[in-house]
Specification:
Strand content: 5-15%
Largest sheet: 10 strands, mixed
Helix content: 25-40%
Shape: globular
Strand order of the largest sheet: 7-6-5-4-3-2-1-8-9-10
Number of strands: 12
Number of helices: 15
């Protein structure tokens, strides 16, 4: 499977990562907070939501050869990527082997877990896929918003999928959307995730705004991200969105338990990222990096967008069937998109004592104003200021331990001795 006129490849100046949407926004669930389901409206009249063989081959070829690194990670998401079936991903493996050219290839897939069966899990284990399983906590918290198309709960199906992953020895982590409901029970959520065998936890704050009137007339429920440095409309956040200070309290509560009992055995992405910042290593997570622009998204038809949260016509860079991925990543439009994160940071943020750890977080969330009225403050700012100041003494201790070539887990003994 090759395209008839191969595109001349342009290598990117730096590594980049693409979130791959081979089935677009199509999903078997109807999660009440999902911002991606309505992306169907970007492609009116579309009936084929499956990435074609030609697009898949060209994308894999370019993604491997356009990267200036020896190890390439593919991330598959949706919608729900398992809707495509195991044979689609067998084709993925074949193409990756065809185009690898000596590079090391790895795969990650994010799934709601409800369609997993033995065949799927055998394939995932055999090909060493890392599975990101979406689960929002114990039954009553998970089922609050994560329902199927018939508005029925999904917890039991997710747990069945998880048991199959464990049965076949598939590596997995958990992705938990922190929303207005489960944020009220931080320790219940954290302890539940540990109880089901998750050792790698990601907490993703839910922050969405209701669409303004002009977008509602086009059928959209969620507002587009704010333009950098500009005042935004007064659209309120959705009822499911987490409160800013509520999110800060959620993180503080979990951190306090983790730092006393679980350092070195349970890995929370946000805590690991914070420790890297306290070590002066910079952020491994795009939302806390000084600049962005190196984490893009590709749709089922090959359209490349600036970011997964910016899948709107304004942020479409081109199509992989007629443009090189490397060239699109280096477009002035995309470079400006990445630089805007730093250049439009309000003065209030530049003076902040935890700027090094936060860097204004994701630009998608910068729709409030600073105390002196400047646009571009992150909605979650009060929560992050609370959290990063709260963890500061412990992060400094763990950083000192690492610098002395000692294990950060020793902090648990130090705290117990106090």
């Amino acid at each position: 499977m090759t395209v008839s006129k191969p595109i001349n490849l342009v290598s990117a100046a730096r590594p980049f990562h693409i979130l791959t949407k081979p089935v677009g926004p199509i999903c078997n669930l109807d999660c009440k907070y999902c911002f991606y389901l309505e992306k169907e409206k970007l492609y009116p009249g579309e009936s084929q939501w499956r990435m074609s063989d030609a697009v898949l081959a060209e994308y894999i070829r370019q993604y491997i050869h356009s990267q200036p690194v020896a190890e390439i990670n593919f991330a598959w998401q949706g919608g729900e990527p398992t809707l495509l079936g195991v044979d689609f991903f067998r084709k993925v493996i074949t193409l990756q082997q065809q185009f690898a050219n000596g590079k090391i290839i790895s795969n990650a897939i994010q799934t709601n877990g409800t369609l997993l069966d033995d065949e799927w899990c055998e394939f995932l284990a055999q090909n060493k896929f890392l599975v990101g399983l979406s689960i929002d906590g114990p039954r009553e918290l998970h089922d609050r918003y994560r329902v199927d198309k018939r508005q029925q709960p999904t917890f039991d199906k997710v747990m069945h999928g998880l048991e199959l992953l464990k049965k076949h020895g598939v590596d997995f982590n958990t992705l938990t959307v922190v929303n207005r409901a489960n944020a009220q029970s931080p320790l219940e959520v954290y302890r539940f995730l540990k109880s089901i065998g998750s050792r790698f936890l990601q907490f993703i704050p839910l922050v969405e705004r209701t669409a303004p009137a002009e977008m509602k007339t086009e059928g959209y429920d969620f507002a587009a991200p704010p333009l950098p440095g500009r005042k935004t409309d007064a659209s309120p956040v959705t009822p499911e969105s987490v409160g800013a200070e509520q999110y800060g309290n959620f993180l503080c509560a979990i951190f306090d338990e983790w730092v006393r009992h679980d350092v070195g055995t349970t890995f929370v992405q946000l805590f690991d990222t914070a420790l890297g910042n306290w070590m002066g290593l910079g952020s491994s997570l795009c939302v806390f990096a000084e600049k962005c622009g190196a984490a893009l998204a590709i749709e089922h038809n090959g359209d490349l967008y600036s970011c997964d949260h910016y899948v709107y016509p304004r942020y479409r860079l081109g199509n992989v069937m007629n443009h090189s991925l490397g060239a699109m990543v280096r477009m002035p439009q995309q470079i400006r998109f990445g630089n805007d994160k730093s250049s439009t940071l309000p003065k209030y943020c530049r003076r902040c004592e935890v700027r090094f750890a936060c860097n204004g977080e994701c630009p998608k969330h910068r729709f409030t104003s600073t105390p002196d009225g400047e646009a571009g403050l992150n909605y979650l700012c009060p929560g992050y200021k609370m959290f990063f100041n709260h963890i500061d003494p412990h992060m400094k201790t763990m950083a000192r331990l690492l610098q002395a070539q000692r294990a950060p887990a020793e902090i648990m003994g130090l705290l117990a001795a106090k």
